[in-house]
Amino acid sequence: MTQLERARRGEITPEMKEGATAEGVDAEFIRENVAVGRIVILANKNRPPKKTCAIGVGLRTKVNANIGTSPDYADLDKEMAKLRAAEEAGADTVMDLSTGGDITGIRRKLLQEAKVPLGSVPIYEAAIRAGADVFMQQGKGKGMAIRTALSRIKGDIYVIIDGDATYERLKERNRRCVGRANALALIQGWNHHSQ
Questions:
Q1: CA–CA distance, 82 with 89 (Å, rounded to integer)
Q2: Would you kindly state where each structural domain of the chain is located, as residue ranges?
Q3: Alpha-carbon gap, residue 55 to 41, rounded angstroms
Q4: Which CATH architecture has domain 63-130?
Q5: Which of 16, 135, 177, 195 is least surrounded by Cβ atoms within 10 Å, i.e. has the fewest?
Q6: pLDDT tens digits, residue range 49-87?
Q7: Quick count: other Cβ atoms within 10 Å of Cβ 82?
Q8: pTM over 0.85
Q9: How far is 156 from 187, CA to CA, in rounded Å?
């Protein structure tokens, strides 16, 4: 049973109590807000964290640290050092965003050693296993990212995702989405040129 289900049944779990103590609030406050979806308790029955973390309304702001390998540089010792540095600096959570090397092995070791909740983005690993070309773009702006991507990849279909919803926010403000039109024109032009 999940923390949400238990909270909705009126139960205060040990994790809710631990989160309340860490936050300096009443455990019932945590339970009530978990029950309505305003607080989450990071908990995984398959690998309980060594430290409970409650995130949400009425609680202190949390700090997350991102670490991870790349196809060009994958060193387990460096990732372990990053994890230790993040924890020593007071990170509440850590995300492993690895895209290169022995991703599964690195993640297993990080999970064994992490003192705070550690998350990952499995879609990165799935994309790499499917043969995707994953790379980091150092230049600023979406235009640079698109130009770099199109110069490096070969294919009939390109999927570009507006991950931060820039264009949707512009649309909500009745602003023209010139960037999207230019990006689409660039993709069509590149496809035509590469054929």
A1: 10
A2: 3-56, 63-130, 137-195
A3: 7
A4: 2-Layer Sandwich (3.30)
A5: 195
A6: 788 899 999 999 999 999 998 888 899 999 999 999 999
A7: 19
A8: no
A9: 11
